């Protein structure tokens, strides 16, 4: 009988909803010089400029991983806009604005030692997380 109540208590504990303020991050991919809208948040994100790409080429060994630095413009649902600068390894890696946190989660294509990247071919993946 004792084990029966123990099982019931464990079941209730596992079935209870877990409350948390943290929300899952959402990734938005945007091509350079283009704008995309995140329909869930109503935010518009435009990839304005690739400021720096000193990332280590994938076919070499580097002492330092390098850094990618981009400028994006974020426009909220009410039309207010702000330009943000994000880095892949240096600061700032994330910036808060309008109740959201923005982070450069990726930049493609990856550099290679023997290939020159077309400047119009870059795509940034921006991670958007709702602030608490």
Notes on the structure:
- There is one protein chain.
- This protein has a single domain, classed as Tick-borne Encephalitis virus Glycoprotein, domain 1, CATH 2.60.98.
- The protein is built from 1 helix and 8 strands.
- The protein has one helix at 2-15; strands spanning 26-31, 35-38, 43-53, 68-75, 81-87, 94-97, 100-108, 123-130.
- The strands form 2 sheets. The protein has a 4-stranded antiparallel beta sheet, with no helix packed on it. A 4-stranded antiparallel beta sheet has the order 2-3-4-5, with no helix packed on it.
- The longest helix has 14 residues, at 2-15.
- The protein starts with a helix and ends with a strand.
- Mean pLDDT is 85; it is low at 4-9 and 16-22.
How would you sum up the major sheet?
A: 4 strands, antiparallel
Overall structural class, as computed from helix and strand content, comes to: mainly beta
Series of secondary-structure elements, N-terminal to C-terminal: HEEEEEEEE
Q: How many distinct beta strands?
A: 8
Main β-sheet, spatial strand arrangement: 1-8-7-6
Average pLDDT, rounded to a whole number, is: 85
Specify the helix fraction band.
10-25%
* Cα-based radius of gyration, to the nearest Å: 21 Å
Determine the strand fraction and express it as a percent band.
35-45%
Report the end-to-end length measured between terminal Cα atoms.
Answer: 44 Å
Number of spatially distinct domains: 1
**Total count of helical runs of at least 4 residues:** 1
| Net shape | elongated
Low-confidence stretches: 4-9, 16-22
Top CATH class: Mainly Beta
């Amino acid at each position: 009988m004792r084990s029966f109540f123990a099982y019931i208590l464990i079941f209730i504990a596992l079935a209870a909803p877990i409350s948390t303020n943290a929300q899952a991050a959402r990734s938005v991919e945007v091509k350079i010089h283009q704008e995309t809208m995140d329909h869930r948040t109503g935010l518009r994100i435009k990839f304005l400029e690739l400021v720096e790409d000193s990332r280590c080429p994938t076919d070499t060994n580097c002492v330092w991983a390098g850094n990618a630095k981009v400028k994006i413009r974020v426009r909220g649902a009410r039309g207010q806009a702000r330009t943000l600068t994000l880095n892949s390894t240096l600061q700032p890696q994330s910036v808060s604005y309008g109740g959201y946190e923005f982070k450069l989660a990726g930049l493609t294509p990856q550099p290679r030692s023997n290939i020159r990247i077309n400047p119009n071919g870059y795509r940034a993946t921006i991670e958007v997380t709702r602030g608490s």
